[in-house]
Write a structure and sequence with these properties.
Layout: E1 2-10, E2 24-26, E3 42-50, E4 56-65, H1 71-82, E5 85-86, E6 89-91, E7 94-96, E8 98-107
Antiparallel strand pairs: 1-8, 2-5, 3-4, 3-8, 6-7
């Protein structure tokens, strides 16, 4: 399986107004569940809330494709990001909380 993390969308209400956007300092760990069936694919969109230190306050799955993607996929994505670290977003010389929307796509390897 190939796992593709796309920083496809950032929320306009926070990140667009930032002088410096949060950056991944430590990449997430495995994002694919161990029980994924051969040939199974799926996409999740995570909403990640960062505090002013760049720490993760909350992670939620806001969309999956297909909609009935097994719960193990959600758990793997959230667990994978739990160990990631970010630099904080900055506005007017101050670190500020921010919110990211990240797309994770799992496709069978060719």
């Amino acid at each position: 399986y190939a796992s593709d993390l796309r920083r496809a969308c950032v929320t306009a209400d926070t990140l667009a107004a930032l002088d410096l956007k949060p950056l991944v300092q430590r990449e997430p760990t495995a994002l694919l569940p161990g029980d994924a069936a051969p040939g199974q694919s799926g996409t999740l969109i995570l909403e990640i809330f960062l505090n002013a230190s760049g720490g993760i306050d909350r992670i939620t799955v806001i969309e999956t494709t297909p909609p009935d993607l097994p719960a193990s996929w959600r758990h793997a994505a959230i667990s994978g990001f739990a160990g990631a670290t970010f630099s904080p977003g900055w506005k007017d010389g101050q670190a500020v909380p921010s919110r990211l929307h990240l797309e994770i796509s799992h496709q069978p390897a060719p």
